Amino acid sequence: MSGAALGLEIVFVFFLALFLLHRYGDFKKQHRLVIIATLLAWYLCFLIVFILPLDVSTTIYNRCKLAVNSSPAESNGSYVTLAPSKQKCFKPWSYIPNGIMPIFWRVVYWTSQFLTWILLPFMQSYARSGGFSITGKIKTALIENAIYYGTYLLIFGAFLIYVAVNPNFNLQWNQLQTIGIAAANTWGLFLLVLLLGYGLVEIPRSHWNGAKRGYLLMKTYFKAAKLMTEKADAEENLEDIMEEVRKVSESIKYNHPLRKYVDTILKKCPTEYQERMGRNMDDYEDFDERQSSYPSEKSLVKLHKQVICSVQRHRRTQVQWQILLEQAFYLEDVAKNESSATRQFVHTFHSQEPENKIIQYFYTPTVEWYWECLLRPWFYRVLAVVLATFSVIVVWSECTFFSTKPVLSLFAVFIQLAEKTYNYIYIEMACFLTIFFLSICVYSTVFRIRVFNYYYLASHHQTDAYSLLFSGMLFCRLTPPLCLNFLGLTHMDATISHKNTQPTAYTSIMGSMRVLSFIADGFYIYYPMLVVILCIATYFSLGTRCLNLLGFQQFMGDSEMTSDLIDEGKELIKREKRKRQRQEEGENRRREWKERYGNRDISTRNRVVHTDQKESSFSETNTNRPLSKYTRSNGRTERDRIELLQDAEPLDFNADSINDDPLELDSGRYQPGGRYLSMS
């Protein structure tokens, strides 16, 4: 089994990263280099999280083997004896031979650092550039990153000059490498604690609130109101950009030198706008060289960039609106089915996507009712309690992991108890659950945060290339300090445990942090305590309240603005539900008519056509006979009646006669006769 566990996890993590990237990215439309770079960044970060427990168990076995083979007199205090010299050490099932892990960590770590500090920032600017050629995009990316790279080079150059001038410092290459690693980890730890403090509270709370049906439905209404505003803004912005494209397309004719750039811009526009512009364009008119009102190439590059961003935003809001509608309809169905006496789940609308037959066979309406209306709330409550317990343990360990006598970190206590009995399965499971929970708290925050339209990870293939690359940068910068923090919590880092024991292969490539004692003994130990303050601030929603005061509407139960947006979202969902019902009723009527009168419809149409042809030929020879006039009128009436029955849709019903509100909220937004009043 030597190395088999490592190979299995390498393959498993690759498909996990590929699955997540497929959920957020679009393999068909986005550039292959963007997909490959993001996949590599996510893959390396997830790989570090999954492989580190194997490194811990292998290190514990090596310590045991070294302690058994070395007597106390021969060791001279170099290694701490973990077991009596007569005790045998059992090799773990996932043991990795010596020499593999240091090379593996060195390749993974430096590749991720190359991605996050050099390649991904450059690709961000390249992907966001509006240039029309590869050379133009590279030039734009270099200019945008000149300040970014120049700042780091200036800081590093000033540090080298200080070291060269000061005679007290005699730094070698290994020490300079360690200082660079420490600087990168310090920046990552600063951001890590901020994200961790939010995730430790928000993840258990979101699962606890997930058991509240009324809470989820009201939050969905709130999201609908906000998303409708964003959707309207995206449509208006797209209209403005398309109007500029139309003017440019009309001014630059077919034989203009810049026409090829305009054609490139037109290809990025939606299809309906392309057809509209194509009809209004006259390519036979030559351009006038003496005219000076033509746009420049620089302005076309800017317009190209605006078109890409506006089209992406418009498409994303359209998809998110449909997804949110399905979610709202389903939550309303759950609220209605909770009081069902038949205990069978009934959907208001049929699923638009074909369902798997295997899932339909096992997930019957009865099973769905018991899960959604009875078991799922309790499952979410139990899961929230378990996650909250983990969060309390993490907060306690973050504040006490520097204490070695006595050992106060609970994670260190668990690992040391398993280390005495060499229970490697327990050690690996405890390490995996610990680092996996820490990763979920940090990574989920990265997926949730949104910086206006600058950074936003949207599921269902709606994330743009810039946000995907930015997420890869964040993962590569957060994962190394996350792993070092985990090793500190479990006292597997000699810098924390203050024991001269064999280090893990991961900490060996980081070098000795004693080169910068104020970071090793100060910042790394005491800064993680800030997570307590961040957890308290997140629990009382201080950040949400501040954003709400600044004008960014956030979901708060005690806010008047939140109540107004909930009411507006509720009306929007009702309007979309009526529209969906009219569509389904119209389709059902047409389907029933075809099933019942399909053959008669065909025969009637043939008879009408034959009669019309006969009428036409007969009326040409004798137009004064009244029979032909009567027959023609009768045929046209029959044909109109058939087409009317085929295309008929039900009229809008009166909203006062039907109560589709599962929460029985304020429904005073309807006037008699089905009139709809919007708050927007």
Brief rundown of the structure:
The protein is an all-alpha fold.
How would you characterize the overall build of this protein?
By secondary structure, this protein is mostly helical. It has a domain at 1-69 and 89-197 and 383-563. It contains 22 helices and four strands. It has a two-stranded antiparallel ribbon with strand order 1-2. Strands 3-4 form a two-stranded antiparallel ribbon. Strand 1 and strand 2 (455-456) form a beta hairpin. Helix 1 runs antiparallel to helix 2 (32-69), helix 2 packs antiparallel against helix 14 and helix 4 (100-128) packs antiparallel against helix 15. The radius of gyration is 33 Å and the shape is globular. The two termini are 64 Å apart. Mean pLDDT is 80; it is low at 73-86 and 615-680.
**General form:** globular
| Alpha-beta content class | mainly alpha
SSE string: HHHHHHHHHHHHHHEEHHHHHHHHEE
N/C terminus separation: 64 Å
Helical stretch tally = 22
Largest pleated sheet: 2 strands, antiparallel
The proportion of strand residues reads: under 5%
Low-confidence stretches: 73-86, 615-680
> What fraction, in percent, of the residue positions are helical?
over 70%
Overall average pLDDT: 80
Radius of gyration: 33 Å
Keywords: Coiled coil, Membrane, Transmembrane, Transmembrane helix
Protein name: LMBD2 protein
Region (Disordered): 604-680
Coiled coil: 224-251
